[in-house]
Design goal:
Helices cover about 80% and strands about 0% of the residues. By secondary structure, it is mainly alpha-helical. The chain has a domain of about 50 residues. Helix 1 runs parallel beside helix 3 and helix 2 runs parallel beside helix 4. It is globular. The mean pLDDT is about 60.
């Protein structure tokens, strides 16, 4: 498998995980942040996509979006 295809597959997997985490809560966001940190060194395109998704959304889930934004900022600040 080519590295480019792996990056695309990982991006889709992470987007799916983030969408589900918005509904499922805190533990999923923590797991997602660990995966984000692990992938950060591998593929910059994934993090450009994830930075948009990590921002708080308009719907009223409150803490989940706040934590997502925190993890997004934390992941990108270490670059």
């Amino acid at each position: 498998m080519h590295e480019e295809n792996i990056g695309k597959d990982l991006t889709l997997l992470m987007i799916s995980g983030i969408r589900e985490s918005r509904l499922l809560g805190r533990m999923e966001w923590e797991a997602t942040s660990i995966i984000i940190a692990a992938l950060q060194k591998k593929n910059e395109d994934i993090f450009i996509t994830l930075s948009r998704l990590a921002e708080p959304s308009e719907h009223p889930h409150g803490e989940v979006e706040e934590r997502a934004s925190h993890f997004g900022r934390k992941a990108f600040s270490s670059r």
